[in-house]
Design goal:
By secondary structure, this protein is α/β, with parallel strands linked by helices. Helix content is 43%, strand content 11%. It contains 17 helices and eleven strands. The strands form two sheets. Strands 1, 2, 4, 5, 6, 7, 8, 9 and 10 form a nine-stranded mixed sheet that branches. It has a two-stranded antiparallel ribbon with strand order 3-11. The radius of gyration is 23 Å and the shape is globular.
C-alpha cells in the first residue's frame, strides 16, 4: 500500500492509502522521481549534503538514473546536473569544494552569484531624467490635488529589479552542459527533467521541459527558475519575464506524480524554527526570536509560509495519488544550524553540506524500519553498515584516495578565511553601487 513518509529529526508519519493503478515505464518498472525545492545558496548546500548521503546509503538507487527530475529555484541547478549525468560527487566538487585540491575547470565560484547587475543599474539610471520630468509636470499641472510623494511616485520605476547579475549563471551552465556526454536541450536528455519558474506578468507557473516549453535551453530555464525577486532580475525568454519558481509551489512533486511516478524522493531545505524545542536540547541561539530583529522575523515568516504550503500540498497528493509513496527529507524544526546560517552565505558551504550529510545519515538509520519496506517495493535497500560507520565524512569520502597533509589542512583554513573576506568585499561593492552618496555630500549619520 502507498504511504506518505516524512523523514526528519521529528517523528515521521505513515498513512495507508487505497490501491490505484499507476503508469509504468517501458520496462514495466515503477517510475522513481527526485524533487528538489528551493532555498537559495543555503538550500543548495543542504540538498547536496542530502544527495551525497542518499547516494552512498541506498543500494539500487542511482541518482543519475531517475525516471523524472523536478527542480525549483536552487533545486533546479542540482536536478539539471543529475539529469545531465553529473554524479553527486562531481556536483559537490563543482558547488562546494572548488578550492586548490580540485583542479576542476568548471568549478562554480561564489562570485558568479555576487556580481552586481551593473547593466540593470545603468538602464534604470538612464530612466531617471524622464521619470523626474514626468513627476514635475504632474505636480505643476495640479499642485493642490497631488502630494509631492504622489506626483513623484513614478520614480520608483528607477529602482533596479535585482541586485546581482544572473546572466553569468546561464553562461556557466551552458558551458557545463555543452561538455561531451551532456546536453543543454531538454529533449535530448535520457530522462525527464522539469524546471519550474513563474511568469511575472501572469503569475502562472511555467514548467520548462514540459509540453510547449521543452525547446528552451536548460541553462536558461534554470536561470529563470532561480531568479529570486529582489536578488536577481527577472529572466527574459521569448518576450516573457520569469522569476523564481518557488513563488507558486515549494516542491512541485505533483509534476512527477502526474507523470506516473510511484516513488518521489523529495528534499526541502527550509523549515520554520521551533525555538522551544531547541531550548530543550540546549541548542537555542536566543531566548526569543524577536531578539534577532527584522532579518530573523522575516526568515521565520518566509519559512513558515512555504513549509505550510508544501505540507498542505502533500496532504492533497496523498488523497489524489493513492498508489504513490513520497519520502521527504528536510531539517528538523530545532535545527539551529540551518536556521541561523545566512541564506546567501557561501563561505559556510562546506559546514552546511557536511551538516546535512550527517543529519540525513542519522535520519536514515533511525527510520530504517519504517523506510525499508517502502524502498523494497522499488528494489532499493538501505546500507545499514554504511550508515553505522560514524567515521564517515564528506571530505573523507570525496578525497579518500588523497589524504590531506598538514599544509593542505592549513591551506583549507586560509581558503575559508579568504572566501569569507571575499564575500564581504563583494557585498560591500554591491551595497556601494546601490546606495552610494553623491560626491561632496556626506552621508547622514
Amino acid at each position: 500500500m502507498g504511504r506518505l513518509i516524512k523523514t526528519a529529526s521529528r517523528k515521521s508519519t505513515a498513512r495507508p492509502l487505497a490501491k490505484k493503478p499507476a503508469a509504468r515505464n517501458a520496462g514495466n518498472k515503477p517510475k522513481v522521481a527526485l524533487a528538489l525545492a528551493g532555498g537559495g545558496p543555503l538550500g543548495a548546500m543542504y540538498e547536496i549534503g542530502v544527495l551525497m548521503a542518499l547516494d552512498e546509503s541506498l543500494e539500487g538507487l542511482n541518482l543519475n538514473d531517475m525516471d523524472i527530475y523536478v527542480g525549483v529555484s536552487a533545486g533546479s541547478f542540482l536536478t539539471a546536473g543529475l539529469a545531465n549525468q553529473m554524479t553527486p560527487t562531481e556536483i559537490y566538487r563543482m558547488f562546494i569544494d572548488n578550492d586548490s585540491r580540485v583542479a576542476h575547470k568548471s568549478a562554480l565560484k561564489p562570485e558568479l552569484f555576487l556580481k552586481p547587475a551593473l547593466g540593470e543599474y545603468g538602464r534604470r539610471l538612464r530612466s531617471v531624467p524622464g521619470l523626474l520630468a514626468r513627476g514635475l509636470l504632474r505636480y505643476v499641472a495640479s499642485p493642490f490635488q497631488r502630494t509631492t510623494m504622489e506626483a513623484f511616485a513614478p520614480l520608483s520605476r528607477a529602482i533596479p529589479a535585482g541586485i546581482f547579475d544572473n546572466e553569468g549563471i546561464a553562461r556557466f551552465l551552458k558551458d557545463a552542459f555543452g561538455q561531451p556526454g551532456r546536453t543543454d536541450d531538454f529533449r535530448q536528455l535520457k530522462h525527464t527533467l522539469y524546471s519550474v519558474a513563474v511568469d511575472l506578468d501572469s503569475g502562472n507557473a511555467v514548467v520548462f521541459g514540459g509540453a510547449g516549453q521543452d525547446h528552451v535551453p536548460i541553462s536558461k530555464a534554470v536561470q529563470a527558475s532561480a531568479a529570486l525577486p529582489g536578488l536577481f532580475p527577472p529572466v527574459e525568454i521569448e518576450d516573457r519575464y520569469y522569476v523564481d519558481g518557488a513563488l507558486k509551489k515549494t516542491l512541485n512533486a505533483s509534476l512527477a506524480l502526474e507523470d506516473g511516478a510511484e516513488l518521489v524522493i523529495g528534499v526541502n531545505p527550509l523549515v520554520p524554527y521551533d525555538g522551544e524545542a531547541a531550548k530543550r536540547r540546549g541548542k537555542a541561539e536566543m531566548e526569543k526570536l524577536i531578539e534577532g530583529g527584522l532579518p530573523v522575523v522575516l526568515a521565520q515568516t518566509f519559512r513558515t509560509l512555504i513549509h505550510s504550503r508544501m505540507h498542505t500540498g502533500l496532504e492533497k497528493y496523498a488523497a489524489k495519488y493513492q498508489n504513490a509513496s513520497i519520502v521527504l527529507f528536510e531539517p528538523g524544526t530545532d535545527d539551529h544550524e540551518m536556521f541561523f546560517t545566512n541564506l546567501f552565505s557561501y563561505h559556510s558551504r562546506k559546514r552546511v553540506c557536511e551538516h546535512a550529510y550527517q543529519r540525513t545519515r542519522s535520519d536514515l538509520l533511525k527510520r530504517r524500519h519504517q523506510l525499508e519496506p517502502v524502498f523494497a517495493r522499488f528494489g532499493i535497500k538501505l546500507k545499514v553498515d554504511v550508515l553505522m560507520d560514524e567515521k564517515r565524512t564528506l571530505d573523507g569520502r570525496v578525497f579518500k584516495k588523497r589524504p590531506l597533509s598538514r599544509n593542505q589542512r592549513l591551506n583549507d583554513a586560509t581558503l575559508d578565511l579568504r572566501d569569507t573576506v571575499a564575500d564581504l568585499e563583494r557585498w560591500l561593492t554591491a551595497a556601494n553601487a546601490l546606495f552610494a552618496w553623491p560626491r561632496g555630500r556626506p552621508a547622514s549619520p
